[in-house]
Design brief:
- The protein is mainly β.
- The protein has 2 domains: 1-37; 44-293, TolB, C-terminal domain (Neuraminidase, 6 Propeller), CATH 2.120.10.
- Helix content is 12%, strand content 41%.
- The protein contains 3 helices and 21 strands.
- The protein has helices at 2-22, 24-34, 209-212; strands at 49-57, 65-71, 76-81, 86-90, 96-103, 108-115, 118-123, 128-133, 140-142, 148-150, 161-167, 172-177, 183-188, 200-203, 219-223, 228-233, 238-242, 248-253, 268-273, 279-283, 287-293.
- Strands 2-3-4-5-9 form a 5-stranded mixed sheet, with no helix packed on it. It has a 4-stranded antiparallel sheet with strand order 1-21-20-19, with no helix packed on it. Strands 6-7-8-10 form a 4-stranded antiparallel sheet, with no helix packed on it.
- Strand 12 (172-177) and strand 13 (183-188) form a beta hairpin.
- The protein is globular and about 50 Å long.
Length: 299
């Protein structure tokens, strides 16, 4: 009997450790929070999505796939490789259309399109934003002279700012800090202003360590149709949609079996949403995912 009780205690301890490591209790907590909740008007509604491109390996990409952003003017995606630094242009089906080698920066983790041929890139450890102009035919680009802004909010180590999103409706740049602590910052004036004096940095206090209950933040998307935020957490294996009051309204699980996934997404780093509200995820080492609303037809 004693041996049986000891074995049972060990099994329960191992089960608890596994649940903690996979963040399953958090996943179930979000499901419970969202169960039966009516979606606000114009919400993205991530719970009704299914995967239709599952773990596509990007051609010619071996490792270090990081950020992702949608360019509505070109109807294409752009991604970063943060090892040997490259900017990639991708079709909405995950075909690599163009490669641009970048110099003058390191440890790129965040990327967002801000209009025309302009993008903002963030260096994680230096907490530095770069506003870049990408010529149509460029294959090489030196960013050493590009306009820069150092956030210097915390002592970063290797847990600095990971994701960016441009909210053109509010003319705001959003930046998410990975963790220790989680932060969602609002930067105004860097993209639109012509002087450092016009720049302001503030924190979205509704989205913090206690309210989000997420282990980390890997990326952010400002959905301009609803005004909601989509926050990607790699360690918690989910994308959560929050309304403007910081209340969760829908969730996309990134585990095996969720939304049709054959396997769990290994290391989700980039998040984007297109004009048809299809959701894209970039995962290290070199994997591309697309999720579509249930019932939608794709060419």
């Amino acid at each position: 009997m004693k041996r049986f009780l000891l074995l049972l205690a060990i099994l329960l301890a191992l089960a608890g450790l596994t649940l903690h490591q996979t963040q399953l209790p958090l996943y179930l907590w979000y499901q419970w929070q969202l169960a039966g909740r009516e979606l606000p008007p114009q919400a993205v509604g991530l719970g009704g999505y299914r995967v239709d491109i599952d773990a596509l390996v990007l051609e010619g990409v071996e490792d270090d796939l990081s950020a992702l952003t949608y360019n509505a003017e070109r109807d294409t995606l752009f991604a970063l490789l943060n090892g040997d630094p490259y900017l990639l242009e991708l079709s909405l089906d995950g075909e690599v259309l163009r490669r641009v080698h970048l110099t003058g920066l390191q440890d790129m983790e965040g990327l967002t399109h801000v209009g025309g041929n302009r993008y903002v890139v963030v260096e994680e450890q230096r907490q530095r934003l770069h506003l870049i102009e990408l010529p149509e035919a460029a294959t090489e680009l030196d960013l050493s002279q590009a306009p820069q802004l150092t956030l210097a909010v915390d002592e970063s180590g290797n847990k600095g700012f990971e994701g960016l999103s441009w909210d053109s409706e509010r003319q705001q740049l959003l930046a998410v800090r990975e963790r220790d602590p989680l932060r969602v910052l609002v930067i105004e004036g860097f993209v639109t202003g012509d002087s450092q004096q016009n720049i302001s940095i503030s924190e979205k206090t509704l989205f913090n360590q206690n309210t989000l209950q997420l282990r980390d933040l890997s990326s952010v998307v400002a959905d301009e149709t609803s005004g909601h935020l989509l926050l990607l957490s790699d360690e918690s294996r989910m994308v959560v949609e929050y309304d403007q009051q910081g209340v969760p309204v829908s969730m996309l699980g990134l585990r095996r079996g969720s939304h049709g996934l054959a396997r769990s997404i290994p290391q989700a780093e980039g998040l984007a949403i297109d004009s048809q509200r299809r959701v894209y995820i970039a995962s290290e080492p070199n994997l591309f995912y697309r999720f579509v609303p249930e019932g939608s037809s794709q060419d």
